[in-house]
Design a protein that fits this description.
By secondary structure, this protein is α/β, with parallel strands linked by helices. The protein has nine helices and 13 strands. Strands 5-4-1-8-9-10-11-12-13 form a nine-stranded mixed β-sheet, sandwiched between helices. The protein has a four-stranded mixed β-sheet with strand order 3-2-6-7. A hairpin with a 3-residue loop joins strand 11 and strand 12. Helix 1 crosses helix 8 and helix 8 runs antiparallel to helix 9. The radius of gyration is 18 Å and the shape is globular. About 45% of the residues are buried.
């Protein structure tokens, strides 16, 4: 893994939210009430997670998103600015509250309900307001917590500017053949492949997209086809306790390594290393590592 002297420039288009976490002994059943040991709140949203992650890994980052005109929205904006992310193209809307995610955590497993709210107010018009910046960056990152029409606009705009496109296909939605073709790389969860790519067998899907599709699971493993053979990379340890944000962390690490012209194998390894770091702290952003954690000055 090499870090060049050039600072990667990345546009992240996606969601932001406040994650409200309840820690319980077990998940409540129908018509059942349980007592939580504690409640916590964290900054989240797959787009904001990737923006913070890539910024901490040394990239110059623009974030395009939408928040509500409420205290949560202001907290998110301040946090992004504190993390060195340019928020000049984050829209504020009166039509919806800031996005939230409600997480019940029990015995190391998370059950999550997402309220997109303002994230679903992010339109193609908002993206086009930042059109001139697409020609200046190295890569554009996307996730699927925003309207698919907006995703399509971002992909078209990035393609017209001949830019690399990274997609974390989560929450899982069917991707068009055009988006798949235009993407530089796609990250997907192993248990959601059929939702994104159809009902073919996992290995068949991987073989169709060599060095493009990277399949992840909760053990911090990544599987991909390099055009010749199936490759599998895994690194974990006994203290993998907090699994929120692992996919975003992997995507950010892979993207930054790719911008520095590393091999696919090195990009996968660095993505896994970044993902592993985030598991040491609760909250999708709190445990995200800095570039100095891997390359001390």
């Amino acid at each position: 893994m090499n870090i060049t002297s050039e600072q990667p420039k990345i546009i992240v288009v996606g969601s932001s939210s406040i994650d409200l976490v309840l820690n319980t002994e077990y998940f409540p059943g129908p018509n059942e009430t349980v007592i939580a040991q504690k409640s916590e709140s964290f900054f989240g949203g797959k787009g904001a997670n990737q923006a913070v992650a890539t910024s901490r890994l040394g990239a110059s980052v623009y974030f395009i998103g939408c928040v509500g005109m409420d205290p949560f929205g202001q907290q998110i904006l301040r946090n992004l600015v504190d993390e060195g992310v340019n928020v000049g193209f984050v829209a504020e809307t009166e039509d919806a509250a800031t996005g939230t995610a409600y997480v019940t955590a029990a015995k190391g497993v998370n059950s999550i309900v997402v309220v997109p709210a303002s994230n679903f107010c992010l339109t193609s018009k908002h993206v086009l307001e930042a059109e001139k910046y697409f020609s200046t960056v190295d890569m554009v990152l996307l996730q699927l917590e925003i309207p698919m029409e907006t995703v399509e606009t971002v992909v078209q705009l990035a393609k017209s500017n001949n830019k690399k496109i990274g997609i974390y296909a989560s929450p899982a939605k069917k991707l068009s053949e055009e988006i798949i073709e235009d993407a530089t790389f796609i990250v997907a969860k192993s248990n959601e492949l059929s939702l994104v790519f159809g009902d073919e067998q996992r290995e068949q899907i991987l073989r169709k997209y060599p060095n493009k599709l990277f399949v992840r699971d909760d053990s911090n493993s990544t599987t991909y086809f390099n055009g010749v053979e199936m490759k599998y990379y895994r690194n974990d340890h006994d203290s993998v306790l907090h699994k929120m944000g692992m996919g975003d962390a992997f995507t950010a690490g892979f993207a930054v390594a790719h911008c520095h012209q590393n091999s696919i194998d090195d990009c996968v390894q660095f993505g896994n290393d970044v993902s592993l770091k985030v598991t040491k702290n609760r909250g999708s952003q709190r445990g995200l590592p800095f570039i100095k954690d891997f390359f001390p000055e």
